[in-house]
Amino acid sequence: MNPLILRVSALTFLTCLPLAAAPLRKPLFEPPFPDSGPVAANLLLKCKATASGHWSDRKPELAVDGDLSDQNHWACEGLPAWWAGELPAPKTVGSIRIKPYRSDGRFYQFLIEGSLDGLEWFTLADHRANSITAPEEGNWFEFPPREVRRIRVTFTHNSAGAKSGAHIVEIEAYPPGAGAEPRLEAGSVDVRYAPAGGTPANAPAAKARAWRGERANLQLLATAGRALPQCGHLCAGLRGPGGKTLPVTLSWVRHTLADGKPVADILDPIETLDIAAGARRPLWVSVDVPRDAEPGNYAGDVVIRSTKGTAKLPVSLEVLPATLPAPKDWKIHVDLWQHPDAVARYHDVPLWSPEHFALMKPLMKRLADAGQKTITCTLIDEAWGGQTYDRFTGMIGWYRKADGSWRYDYTVFDRWVAFMIDEVGLDGRIHCYTMIPWSLKFSYIDEATGLPGELSLKPGSPEYESHWAGFLKDFTRHLREKGWQERTRIGIDERPDALLRPVLALLAKHAPELKVASAINHRSDLNNGIDDVSPAIGTSGEFDLKLLDARRAGGKRTTYYVCCGPMVPNTFTFSPPAESEWLGIFAAAQHFDGFLRWAYNSWVENPFVSTDYVTWPSGDCFLVYPGNRSSIRFERLRDGFEDFEKIRLLRETAAKSGKTDALTELERVLSGFTRERSGKPGVHADDVRAANDAIDRAVGLLKP
Hints:
The protein is α/β, with parallel strands linked by helices and 704 residues long. It is 20% helix and 31% strand. It is built from 11 helices and 32 strands.
């Protein structure tokens, strides 16, 4: 939202594939998972190592030093050759992984043996008939558990030639059951888990609480010592009172790059995927509790399964005797800016084609289901001066006739607004950007020549007024005909008072029925007459409760926003998840009417590869992913909107019943949600938990 002119991509209109080939025309991508090894302890790590010999400095201990890089390995010229490791004491072993040097595609044949005394040896795994290069993770061998103190590998063949000898990058041994079997344990929705590592030492229980009509979220962690090909998930639902079952939605959590580092954020509803050896794959669990669900305890099992084994984890949900209204009836004013151009570009379909609308429908329904109250429209091209990867093209055609008069084409504008209202079900306001673009440049088509033109106009000048006066008169006429006049606002974004003042005067003169919605940096006298005002969180304190109540009494809305700043709290890809939910509770605590943020889906080139973009913090321009994939941060932001509604209902009920004392604890907790505290890293998860606990303890105010 800063006035920088950044690189943008021209939208390319390609031949449309049938929608059956959609919705995702690009493969999902993730950074490689670091191979951290199996979940259980490697018994051979740092053990005493010997060998029949070694080449140069490639000594036998390099095979058990924990370094999995190919350059760091034991090597011995000539065959046969052997390597042996000795444990400090006898241990029971059930599997061995050996990672040979394989970068040139060579393969090896070898025998793995065990011994208790170094004299009598028995076979653990026989690989002497092998003719295949080892996979990246190495060769895994599972066998009936045997007690051993020594493990020996004897190489008999190297496809690169006997002179090339034997090479072991790393060899690992594990107790029974530590190799192939997957594990599933509870995680925390407050953590973005790294792509490698085991499950938490003090894992929380997989349980949650929810109101009726609320979405409850849990995060589980799937791990395994070896690769799990085509690992799937399933849950038959959570059974509760009277045998009723609540449906469960499961999504694998994928990683993308943020500031060049892998970060867990993408929620992918795909049923199966491969899990690399030693990787940690989060699994997001969502339960949309029906509004007529019976209060009580519900329980069920989440299961993961692959060809290598199955794991399950019991999960439970307590449904409380309180009910949220449907999202369309939430009072919170959510304003997340939509970007249709990004959908067309990413999916390679023509802008405003039937395929384009079909792709946008589930994406925009997800937004409406989060309480969205506005439809983002563009009166002109690049209202924000080219700050996103894709252009924000204008939805209204401006045509200058040969005689100098103007013609306006509302075809796209009408289709977009009607689509959002009639098909998406977003029966909200229409915010039209803008009369004050960052560049103060206005494009058009010259009908006489058919060529594009551009005007540089400054608010307050006669040329500016002449340009806009005719449009405003025609636009208001069109809005009245469509029945959209009352819900339409002229959108203004962070424009200084020197530019805003003449625009407000121009509107009062030529279109007094059109109201204004404006994001601002600081409060000023001009805000008093603006219908919808949204200060930045850093200056939100300039709107005290008395002023907010006065604006509400006058039928005006006041929200607040975050964007490319502050760094904390925010909804960046790398932001701790609790910060997203904290934002909604802050709105309720400070008595704002809601929350604004650019942008819902201004995607970078390929957000599945990286969410970084030029100067903005990673993920700043979008909250969801192509193919209608949600994210951890969007789901937690939605949680905050639900919290806002809960607090509103509790306050309204307490006021009507005269039981305001019942909210003493909740208001005490909410008093800590301040602008000053907002920027302190690390406090948000505890704040959110405290607020949710206080909300749920106050549920007795509400009747089922």
